[in-house]
Amino acid sequence: MVRNALQRLAQSVLVLLGCALLIFVMLRIIPGNPIAVLMGEHADNTVIERMTAELGLDQPVLVQFFRYIGGALRGDFGTSYSLGKPVSSLMASAFVHTLILALLAAVFAWLIGITSGIIAAVKKNSILDHLFMGASLLGVSMPVFMTAMLLQYFFAYRLKLFPIAGMDSFAAYILPAIALGWNSAGSVARLVRSTLLETLEENYIDTARAKGRGQVGVLVVHALRNAMLPVITMMAIQFSGLLSGAVITETVFSINGIGRLAVQAIAGRDIPLLQGTVLFSAAVVVIGNFIADSLYRVLDPRIRREA
Amino acid sequence: MESKTLEIRNLNTSFFTQQGEVRAACDVCLEVQPGQITGIVGESGCGKSVTARSVMGLVRYPGRVVSGEILLDGKAMTGISGKEACSLRGAEVSMIFQEPMTSLNPVMKVGKQVEEALLLHRKLSKKEAAKSAAQMLEKVGISDVKNRMECYPHQLSGGLRQRVMIAMAMICSPKLLIADEPTTALDVTVEAQILRLMKQLCDAGTSILLISHNLGVIAQICDYVYVMYAGRVVEQADTMTLFDHPAHPYTRGLLQAARSLRSDAEVLATIPGVVPNLLHLPAGCSFSPRCGQCQEPCKTSMPDMLPAGEKGHLVRCFLAEKEKQQPVEAI
After folding, report:
1. How confident is the model at residue B322 (pLDDT cuts 50, 70, 90)?
2. With contact defined as beta carbons under 8 Å apart, do A177 and A187 qualify?
């Protein structure tokens, strides 16, 4: 068990290194000199060259890469060209906002998603089932910017229940969390419903009933744990998605999270900042998958033994 | 007279499909006497499993029990609340299924699954429950019980899993054990062991309703047999009588087919035709289109269960009265 976890951890580190290399190389093959952009149109060529050398951008890509990794291991991700501050501290402060948003969105999405999925499965083809599945379809298919703006219009502008945007109070995070979480809630609800329905058809559910378990007992003791296996994977992936920055939601609601930072970095050709944010997203996804995988092993004894 | 362990009176169970009502069990009357093994035999889809599931209240959607009475030890099992039914299931009557591979919860330890019914129905501490679960597992012939109880189902073989299923069903010492094709998924040596075990359980006082399509299994351990065809009981008799003097043409056909397997016959005996679609049953006797002795009345009306020869031997066939049963060899 422990050995296996260590193995997978080592794999995760390798994947992360691969990601870093890919990001690094890609940012350097795209045409255009970022320094030229930084210095403006009228900059002197010699100045640009000196600046390029100073930042180490004239070195071979691999040399630059290992320097970068060396720095990253010490917590130094370089200094943002456009903002003039260390990338690590910029990301740390942005991460706080993203984290609050992601946690809220996840709690909203999973509470609603799992509960409505279970109700929909148990009361299959009832009005509640159709209602929940309709709402989840809406959540899954509506683009986030549209959900976000509709929420702003009704709950902030019309009803004045929440601030339209910003990060001044906790309440300001609620609308973006709903906008962000609705989509996840929809897919979780649908997955819970379908896996639960499938599980309830299994023979061991009949066995449990034959033992004298009532409806609730069958559901809680026997069906849910089996049905949740695929859902756990989905939730872990969703959470890493939420955590790696919600570009659109953060932009619409003016929340200075990782997503917005990445947009800023792209607009300003800010290579260190962009590298930092993209690498951060990759790390979050890799860690999320690692956790999903580990949880899966804890929950499903069949996988535990095969490994 | 001693009360019957199980009595089914005029059970009708139907599946309400989009094509119409499928009458999977039709006016089924059946009894299980205490301390006996009663068999139901028939082809796939003849209604034997549905009958068993009706007793357990486990008929799957879109099926349901439409009418009829089910009495367990004289107490009605139909028309009671869900809670009352739950308190009977697992305690007074329990069931083992055809597929030991998929009938155990894959994410729950075997020991826990055996204890479950005890904790539900008896006021026992977890420790006591674990102890009697271990005893029961030993009783069904599982060695190394301590370790096996900590196993998950996928770590056990099919035979072991079916033993676990039996232990699970027997843990509250129910009056009736329903076994739905308990050995179909197992190989022959394991089948023999499981059958021996069931015989022992019966000798220890549990009545068993055994469902099988295998005449050999039925002949080996059953005291009394019901033959079902297209949702109806077509013949019932004690095992000896049924195998020596089958009265229904369908039963005879089945026995001939089974016997020709064992003899050197070049051509296997078969029953011509196929099992009718339950949605479009032929008028009259359901078996009439396949019956070699079909006569005019068979095509228009369904015969009742008529006495045939020995006491307790009933058959759903117009020929029963006219014809004296001949031993099957002579046919």
Report:
1. low
2. no
Asked if residue A13 belongs to a domain, the reply is yes
Residues A42, A95 share a domain = no
Q: At residue A306, does pLDDT exceed 60?
A: no
Its domain, for residue A13, covers 2-73
Residue A5 banded pLDDT, cuts 50, 70, 90: confident
Q: In this structure, what token pair is assigned to residue A226?
A: 């089996």
Are A61 and A103 within one domain? no
**A98 and A65 belong to one structural domain:** no
Answer whether A203 sits within 8 Å of B95, measured CB to CB.
Answer: no
Helices (H), B155-269: 158-170, 188-203, 215-221, 239-244, 249-262
Q: How far is B50 from chain A (nearest CA, A)?
A: 13
Residue B175 pLDDT exceeds 50: yes
Residue B181 pairs with which residues in a beta bridge?
none
B24 and B42 Cβ atoms separated by less than 8 Å: no
At residue A169, the pLDDT reads 86
Pick among A125, A197, A211 to test the B interface (most B CBs inside 10 A): A211
Q: Give the C-alpha separation, A13 to A289, whole Å.
A: 12
Domain end point (choices A73, A106, A125): A73
pLDDT at B321: 67
Q: What is the pLDDT, as a whole number, of residue B11? A: 94
- Interface residue A297 vs chain B (CB under 8 A): no
Q: Residue B192 to residues B177, B189, B199: CA-CA distances in angstroms? A: 18, 5, 11
**pLDDT at residue B323, as a whole number:** 57
Residues contacting B99, CB < 8 A, separation 6+: A203, B185
Does the structure show a pLDDT above 80 at B328? no
A201 and A129 both lie in a single domain: yes
A149: its two tokens = 């703006």
Task: Find chain A residues with C-beta within 8 A of B95's C-beta.
Answer: 210
Which position has the token pair 């078996």? B287
Q: Would A81 be classed as within a structural domain?
A: no
Residue of B92, B107, B184 to mutate, testing the A interface (most A Cβ within 10 Å of its Cβ): B107
Residue B6: other Cβ atoms inside 10 A: 22
Prediction ipTM score: 0.85
- Pairwise CA distance, residues B61 & B39, whole Å: 26
Q: Which of A73, A99, A124 is the last residue of a domain?
A: A73
d(CA B233, CA B30) in angstroms, rounded, equals: 8
Extract the tokens encoding B260: 């020709």
The answer to the question of residue A97 being in a domain is yes
Indicate whether A150 and A295 sit together in one domain. yes
Residues B223-259: tens digit of each pLDDT: 999 999 999 999 999 999 999 989 999 999 988 888 7
Total domains in chain A come to: 2
Contact A307, A4 (CB under 8 A): yes
pLDDT at position B331 over 60: no
The average confidence (pLDDT) of chain A is 88
